[in-house]
Amino acid sequence: MNLKDAYINYFKKHGHVQIPSAPLIPENDPSVLFNTAGMQPLIPYLMGKEHPEGKRLVDYQKCVRLTDLDSIGDKTHHTFFEMLGNWSLGDYFKKESIQYSYEFLTETLNIPVEKLAVTVFAGNDDIPRDEVSADVWRSLGISEDRIAYLGVEDNFWIAGESGPCGGDTEIFYFRSTDEVPAEFDPKDERWVEIWNNVFMEFNKDENGKITELPSKNVDTGMGLERVVAVLEGVDDNYKTSIWKEIIETIEMVSKKTYVGNELSMRIIADHIRTSVFIAADRALVKPSNTDQGYILRRLIRRAIRHGKKLEIDMNSDWLAIIAKEVIKKYENYYSEIKDNKEIVLDVLRNESLKFNRTLEKGLREFAKMLKHLDGNIIDKDNAFKLYDTYGFPIELTEEMATEHNMSVDVEGFYDKFRAHQEKSRTASAGKFKGGLAGDGETETKYHTATHLLNAALKIVVGPDVHQRGSNITPERMRFDFSCDHKLTDEEKHEVEKLVNDWIKADIPVTMETMAKDEAVKSGAEAMFIEKYADIVNVYSIGDVSKEICGGPHVNSTSELGVFRIKKEEASSAGVRRIKAVLE
User: Fold this and answer.
1) Please, are residues 509 and 553 in contact by the beta-carbon 8 Å criterion?
2) Which residues touch 139 (CB under 8 Å, ≥6 apart)?
3) Distances (CA, A) of 450 to 72, 287, 357, 438, 466
4) What is the rounded distance in angstroms from the CA atom of residue 17 to the CA atom of residue 535?
5) Where are the alpha helices (DSSP H) in 288-409?
C-alpha cells in the first residue's frame, strides 16, 4: 500500500478536495528560505481568506527543514520530507477531525489501538483545559491512562505573537518490541508522535487579549517518512521502502554495504534527495553563496565529502546516478521533478566539478594543518583559509574537526570574515553599508532609527509592511516601505509615539554573527535578502526589532534623541516614503 495514495483517497472519500503541493521555495514570502510545513502555504486561508477549492482540503506537501541539519546521519532525521495534511476551514471541528484521524490509523492502516496514546492541551489562565478533545478520544476507546494533558510549550499553536491560535492534540505510537506500558509517559522516547491536529478556535490580539473566533479551523499534519517506518516495523527510517532503491544505488556506486557505513550513506541519500528537489523547484535555484543557493551548495558539497569517505570514484557520474534513482521515485507525484530532470543533473555535475577541483587540495591542507597545530583547536586563520581558498563552509570545517576530536575557533572565524567583508566594502567605491552615505555619529543614529521605524510601521499599519529602501544624510533619514494607502494623521502620530517610547525605554542594541539561513530561521528580517553573503550580522533592539544588517548602530536607543516625522508621501506604486529627523 502506498501511504500517500491511501491518505489522499481516504480524505477525498470524506469530502476533501486534493490540492497540489506548493513549491518548495515559498512564493512572495522572503521570511523563510523553504516551506517547512504543510500548513505554511495555507496560512492566508487559515487566517480567514476564502480558499477557491472550498472548506475541506487534503494534500501532501514538499518540505525542507534545516533545524536538524546537524542530526542528519542518525536513523530518523531528514532535511527534505513530505507532510500529509488535511484541513477544515470553518467546517467540521474537533470531534470529526479526531474521528477521521483515528479511523484512518486503525482501520485504513490497521494500527492496533493499544499502541496509540494522545496528548491534549492542559489549558492556562486564558483558555480552558481541552476536555472536548479528551472526551472524543475516550469515546473512541483511548483509556484515561493513555491521555496526557500538556501545556503551551507542547500542545498549543500560534503563528506569531498574535493572531489565530489554539490547542492541539497529538497522536503517539509505541515504536518498540517491549511490552506496551499501561500508562502513557510523553517523556518515554519509545512513544513517537505521528500526527498532530491543531484546533484554531481563538484569536490573540496585540495586547494579549484572547477571544473566541467566529469561524474555527482545523490544521493537521503527519510526517510520511516517520509513519512509513512505523508501518514497516523498522527503527531506522533509511531501511524503509522510501529509501530502499536509493541506499542500494549508493551501495552499488561505493561497492560497500549499508551496514558499517550508515552515517555517510544516510547523509548522501538525504542530501542528494533534498538537492534534487531544491534544484527542480520552479524557482530554478543554482548553487551560490546566498539564500537557497547556499543551502544547495552546502548539501551537495557535504554529500561529495562523504562520497569521498566511502572511496567512491570522484571522476565518475555517481551523483547523477543516485539523483536519477531519486527522480524515478518521485516524478509521478511531482511534475517539476520530471520536467527539470536535466537541469537537476547539470546542477549536480557542475557543482561537483567546482568542488572536486579544490576538495583534494583542501583535505590535504586540513591534514597538514592538524600536524602543525598546538592543542586541539583549529584557529581562525586556518578556518578562514579553508573557507576562502578551498570553498569549505565553516560548518564543514567544524564537522571535520569533530571527527578528529577537535574544535574550531568559530567566533574568531566570524571576526576575520567580518574584517574581510569590511575590507571588500571600503575597496568598492560608491558602495555604502545598508544605505548609509557615511558612518558618522549622526548617520549611525539615523540608521538605528530606521529599524525602530520599520518595527513601528508593522504594528500600526500591519505585519505586511516591509522596507523597500532607505537613504540617510547627516540632516535626515528617508525610509521607503510597502503600503497601499496614504498614512492618516492618527497613524503617523502612533508611529512617532511608538518610536519615541522605545527611545525613552533605553533598550540595548546587540549584534550576533551567524549563517544567513540560521538568521532567517530565527526571525530576522532583511531587505533584499539575496544581496547578503552566507554569513551575516543580525542586530536586535530588545524584543522590538531583529534585522540582518551591515550596521553600524548605537549601543542603546536612548542615544537617539526625539524622533519626528516631517513628511509622508508616495514613492512608487504600492510604496510610501517617510522623511524624518532626530532632534
Assistant:
1) yes
2) none
3) 40, 33, 44, 15, 12
4) 42
5) 291-309, 318-330, 335-339, 341-372, 380-390, 394-403
150 - beta bridge partners? 121
CA dist., res. 134 & res. 197, Å (int)? 13
**Which amino acid type is present at position 466?**
H
Residue 534 has pLDDT above 70, yes or no: no
Question: Treating both helix axes as pointing N-terminal to C-terminal, what angle do 291-309 and 262-280 enclose, rounded to 10 degrees?
Answer: 150
Is the pLDDT at 433 greater than 90? The verdict is no
- Cβ proximity of 219 and 198 under 8 Å: yes
Contacts of residue 117, defined as CB under 8 A and 6 or more positions apart, other chains included, come to 142, 146, 147, 148, 171, 172, 174, 184, 191
Which H helix or E strand runs over 521? helix 516-521
C-alpha pair distances (Å), 100 with each of 108, 144, 409, 519, 522: 11, 20, 52, 38, 35
Q: Classify strands 116-121 and 147-150 as parallel, antiparallel or unpaired.
A: parallel
Closest alpha carbon to 501 in 566, 442, 448, 562 = 562
Determine the 3-state secondary structure of 193 from DSSP: strand
Cell numbers given for 355: 568542488
User: 58 falls in which pLDDT band (50, 70, 90)?
Assistant: very high
Of 243, 359, 327, 264, which is closest to residue 72 (Cα–Cα)? 264
0.85 surpassed by pTM: no
The 10s digit of each residue's pLDDT in 458-512 is 999 998 888 877 777 778 888 888 888 999 999 999 999 999 999 999 999 998 8
Element (H, E) at 220: strand 210-223
Distance of alpha carbon 371 from alpha carbon 394, whole angstroms: 20
Q: Which amino acid is at 455?
A: A
User: Cβ-count burial of 32 within 10 angstroms (0-12 exposed, 13-18 middle, 19+ buried)?
Assistant: middle
Give the sign of the dihedral formed by CA 245, CA 249, CA 250, CA 254: positive
Residue among 471, 532, 52 at smallest CA distance from 289: 532
d(CA 262, CA 259): 6
Contact 446, 477 (CB under 8 A): yes
